[in-house]
Design brief:
The complex is a heterodimer. Chain A is α/β, with parallel strands linked by helices. Chain A is built from 31 helices and 22 strands. Chain B has one domain: Roll (Ubiquitin-like (UB roll)), CATH 3.10.20. The two termini of chain B are 15 Å apart. Classes of the chains: A alpha/beta, B alpha+beta. Chains A and B meet through α17, β18, β19, β21 and β22 of A and β1, β3, β5, α1 and α2 of B.
Chain lengths: 744, 70
Amino acid sequence: MVECVSKGDLSGGLALFASSIPFPRIISRTCNRPCENACKRLEAGESIQVNALERACVDLADKRPSPPRSLPRKGKRVAVVGAGLSGLTAAVDLAKKGYQVVVLEASARPGGRIHALPEQVLSRQALDADFEVLQHLGVEVRYDSPVGNAEGSCVRFDALTGDFDAVYLGPGPGSVDRLLLGLELGAEGRIRLDPVTFATSHPKVFAGGGQRQGAAAYSSITSLQDGRYAALSIDRFLQKASLTGSREQQGSYSSRLFTSTKGVEPLPAIRPADPPRGYTQAEAEEEARRCLSCQCLECVKACEYLAHYGSYPKRYVRQIYNNDCIVMGARTLNRMVNSCALCGLCEAICPEKLSMGEVVREARQSLVAKGKMPPSTHEFALRDMAFSRSEHFALVRHAPHRDSSATIFFPGCQLGASSPEHVLRVYEHLREKVDGGVGLHLGCCGAPADWAGRQDLFREALDELAGTWKRMGSPRVITACSSCYEVFKHELPGVEVESLWTLLARLGPPRPMPAAAPRALAIHDPCTTRSHGDVHDAVRRILTALGVRAEELPYSRELTTCCGYGGLQSFANPEIADKTVLRRIAESELDYVTYCAMCRDSFSAKGKRTLHVLDLLFGAAEADPASRKGPTFSQRHENRARLKTRLLRELWGEQVNGEGDPTPMPLIVSPEVQALMEKRMILLEDVERVIARAEASGEKIEDRTTGHLVASHRPVNVTYWVEYSVDASGIVIHNAYSHRMEVG
Amino acid sequence: MSQNASPPAPPDLVCARCEQPMVMAKVTVTYLGHKFPYDLLNCPGCGKVHVPEALATGKMLEVEQLLEDK
């Protein structure tokens, strides 16, 4: 209603007000305004003058709402005793539901205690106009009809309970002792009733209004509320439904939803120029515009994922639950379930600590368990994980010339993929500075499987990690990647794990000191460090030691944001991942510095100059490492494989199988085709396999228009197609695409 | 999966192994247990089927995604 008024639509405001309040004129003039004490505007000025706005709607609207309509008659009769506001509200609500209602009033007029109000507050005319609704709904009102079982009552209460299917008693606040109703009575001779259902000791009889409120000051809105709750109970009673179900939040209650008034300019209420007449339309609009339109959106404001779907977690949780329960039909929210970065920012921001990430994680596990997880969503990422766990990358060794390790370095899969040189440099530094032998463990921590809801694969990776760790003599584990750190910390509690960053902060910078670093950099904390303040501090100490002034971004440390890779967001929903990155990199003009290879590569891919802390500590091959673009998916595989080969050769003097084999004919891939393959998540090794197979079997198609060859191969779930030609310099790749459907 | 009303003129494709021009024939495409008939170029000799890029990255992808949410 307030929103309608703020837009100048007083008729719309009145229609909304009248849809829930059966007597709008009365309430707009008599309400004791309990809602205004709870208004969030009180924290920044005065509460919104809701009642004055209601009155403006009633007085100034051009269009009156059409009177309410009744549902088809139900063939059941309800008697309402007392034509006060509670009784009349019960009568209107029940008549609208199709019950035949008869009101029995002891006096000669409707309204009860409302008549105690002076004419200038509430005119007789306004009363009559509001009560027209009774006639409209076919409610029969019998005046001068006192009810009771005592002498002098003109209607016997016992007869009512026999003649009618249910009875509402709203005889005002006085004692009913003398009426001999036969009901259980409580304090001061008033009817004893259930505080939620308004039921009395007689199953057919309900009561409220003054009987419930007693001698408390008269409140028209409270009487209206009593009539409404009693009518709800009567309807449920007559429908043989539960009287108590889902009524926990009946009436006003403290919501867990949170609206921040931080930064809201305090504003006093608008005072009408002529108080007895109330607001003019212009005054009403101005007052309504002060409304904060309370919404619980703190997390949505901070998260592109939550904002993307146009609603907020309370609704999302319900939608995700419904999506999970679908037996037949489309699960339209699968993509939404898979698009969250699981970064934990919503939980960190929420005053009630609601974690959408946990909801989504469970939903993903449930989709997997039911066999309903879309097969294409995570397959590529899981293949990447399998590669990192395969013989192409996985490696475990004690330090050269040692047969035990007090410590083992676990660089994770992405540092070696993005910047293999840094793995070498860090490992060298650790071997030099850390006593007791520092082993090396290349592999994957299993986080992608966890993010994909694949608990089976995750457990498998964890068991393997634990087994390797034990075989290596249970050393302290040093992780370079904060996702690996989280996995070790939470999933393998027996393992002593330390972040590379706290260790490096203690060890101090390697000698010789790298060249002078830029003066000021904006620091981005990876989202998986969220709960590790010691890591945040350590990185800042390292930067200070390097002469860097680290500027904090608006969302940093425990409120840091994701780079779009977390939770495999960029695989499930590249559009949201892009929005996540673009928002993050727009937060400061400065070059960024971070300590996660994926965060660095995500930012630099979108053109943000970003350094890795290791670029500053150990230098980089490039003259301007901040502008370095991250590797393609294919290059990531290649970098990992080469890192392993190089380590084995240089540190352990081992030759790797296949190394030194004659190189097959080189593939020539233009940057345009490379970009297309990256977008379509096709690896060079997929292309190589298609061509090797086609050339060996001769199973290929000749396109006589272009002179190109077209070949396909389906290793497991995806068919890859490659268009290529062979010339003297090698095999030129013209195009690559794929599909999951099987043909033939 | 509905058939395109008028597929573009097929390129001059020849099966390299059988050295036979490829011709339109009804083939079945399958995904997650759902089967659809579709007209595609194939080799009358060995049966090798050609899936054009526009189909793989267009209609096929669309239907794959629809079926994945079933």
